[in-house]
Structure formats: C-alpha cells, structure tokens
Design a protein that fits this description.
single chain; about 70 residues; alpha+beta; three-stranded antiparallel sheet; 3 strands
Length: about 70
C-alpha cells in the first residue's frame, strides 16, 4: 500500500495527516480515513561474518510485511 495514495479516490498527496488525535490517516481531498499502522523496525548490526545476512534472510521469510534496506551498498 502506498501511503501517499488514497484508496478511496486515488488522489496522490504528501498532505495525509493523522486526524483527531487518532491513529488514522485522513485524505485531504475526499476525507477518507484509514488506519495508520506503525510496523516494527529491526536493525541488524554486528561484525563482519557474525551472521547478519543469515538472520536477515530468516526474518524476511517469517515476517508478512517487510522492507529490506541494504546499508552497505
């Protein structure tokens, strides 16, 4: 799901806001509201050869929604 695209009207905007002190995003165009989900963040660190890539591969296979950011590239 793209956080910048409203699923109701299809409008793209950088102005989605958390509305009324609730954990929802509100579309500035049509007012459609949807839950704002804050997913956990995992940062794997360690020395060379410690197994970071192996653990990362296992986590990716077990998590439903995941984004992998390579910092060595």
């Amino acid at each position: 799901m793209d956080l910048n695209v409203c699923p109701a009207c299809g409008a793209w905007s950088d102005d989605f806001v958390v509305a009324d002190e609730e954990a929802v995003l509100a579309c500035p165009g049509c007012g459609h509201r949807r839950p704002f989900v804050r997913l956990p963040l995992f940062a794997l660190t360690g020395a060379s050869g410690a197994g970071k890539s192996a653990v990362g591969t296992i986590l990716v296979g077990r998590l439903r929604q995941v984004v992998v950011l390579e910092q060595d590239l």
